[in-house]
Amino acid sequence: MDTSRLDLNLLVTLEALLTERHVTRAAARLNLSQPAVSAQLARLRDVFEDPLLLPAQRGMTPTAKALSLLEPLRQALDQVRGVASSHLNFDPATADLTVTIAASDYLQTSVLQPLVLRLRREAPGIRIAVRHMDPAQHAAQMARGDVDLGLMQPIEAAPSLRMRALFHERYVLIARRGHPALASKPGKTGEKAPAKLSAKAFAKLEQVIVSPAGGAFSTPVDQALAALGLKRQVVLSAASFLFVPDIVARSDLVALVPERLVKGRSAGLQVLTPPLPIEGFDIAMVWHERNQGHAAQRWLREQVLAVGASRDGGTAGGTAS
Q: Which residues contact 314 (CB under 8 A, 6 or more apart)?
């Protein structure tokens, strides 16, 4: 192959075509016209002596040779991009870029909301595109560049990704203020404190649980109760944590939720320690190797880390891996 006929623009176009597998979408990604991208594809086919992309019912299908080129091409171009931008000083106040972050609804509320408010003050030119976290697809989404940063449990993260711990989350019990089974009682100092709840009394309360997949009416909490010879009254299975605090505040239902979900949002609610031990979980942020040395991405990760620390009153731990 005569590599003298290749230039960087052609390789960037090839990467976009192999990623999008559609001339129109590749053109939009490159801010070029469709005829210009089609002309570059014709040149690429000539240089590589291969069709590279074949017409399909929807978009285009890469040839075997094209598939073998994609990953080494992406790595090479990422290195070029890193070298080209490594000397630039990142200024949050004047930065102009879009970052895509994937997270569950709970993390969108507890971490991304305060992050966005922070960025509006310190980096108003940075736009955040929020996507719902799909644990089964997150590695592929980051490899394609569709997602820049993910927030998730470390046990769900692909080993190929970089990771840093954010915080440990625990569960709390929420109920409306004035709930008849949790009426406040005078303490020794005369101040009113929430009544303590036994596991047996807890099991008798009508409850909401969250089933992200939909429809389940049991969680590991039910196994812990069963070990005590108890069975709780689950009357509502919600698909999202965001649904839970409001309905609990408006009824006699109670729920176990991640503590950060209700921090600063507990008006009308009592927030109590669960009456039996409930295992919490860790949250980390993950990102692809290509974003490791990017100045803007690095700064953004530090902001996420700061939000994680401030929301639990401690210092976020962990190191890059």
A: 167
Residues 6+ apart with CB under 8 A from 22: 59, 60
Q: Kindly report the backbone phi and psi dihedral angles of residue 186, in degrees, each rounded to the nearest multiple of 5, phi listed first.
A: -65, 135
| Cβ–Cβ under 8 Å, residues 128 and 119 | yes
pLDDT of 131 reads 95
Which of 81, 13, 20 minimizes the C-alpha distance to 48? 13
d(CA 6, CA 45): 11
CB within 8 Å of 296: residues ≥ 6 apart:
90, 95, 97, 99, 126
Helix (H) or strand (E) holding 7: none
Nearest residue to 282 via CA among 185, 154, 157, 99 = 154
Q: Of 34-43, 46-55, 230-239, 305-314, give the lowest mean pLDDT range.
A: 305-314
- Answer whether residue 192 shows pLDDT above 70: no
Instruction: Decide: residue 31, CB within 10 A, 0-12 exposed, 13-18 middle, 19+ buried.
Output: exposed
Alpha helix (H) residue ranges in the chain: 8-20, 23-30, 34-48, 64-85, 105-107, 113-122, 138-144, 199-204, 220-227, 244-249, 259-262, 295-312
Q: How many CA atoms lie within 13 A of 174 on its CB side?
A: 27
Q: Residue 61 in contact with residue 21, Cβ under 8 Å?
A: yes
pLDDT at 5: 72
How does pLDDT run across 139-181, given as a tens digit for each residue? 999 988 899 999 999 999 999 999 999 999 999 999 999 999 8
For residue 135, give every residue at least 6 positions away whose Cβ sits within 8 Å of its Cβ, in sequence order, or none.
Answer: 152, 156
- Other beta carbons within 10 Å of 131: 15
| Helix-strand-coil split of the chain, %, nearest 5 | 45, 20, 35
Q: Which residues pair with 131 in a beta bridge?
A: 102
Q: How far apart are CA 100 and CA 320, in angstroms?
A: 20
The two most distant CA atoms of the chain are separated, in Å, by 88
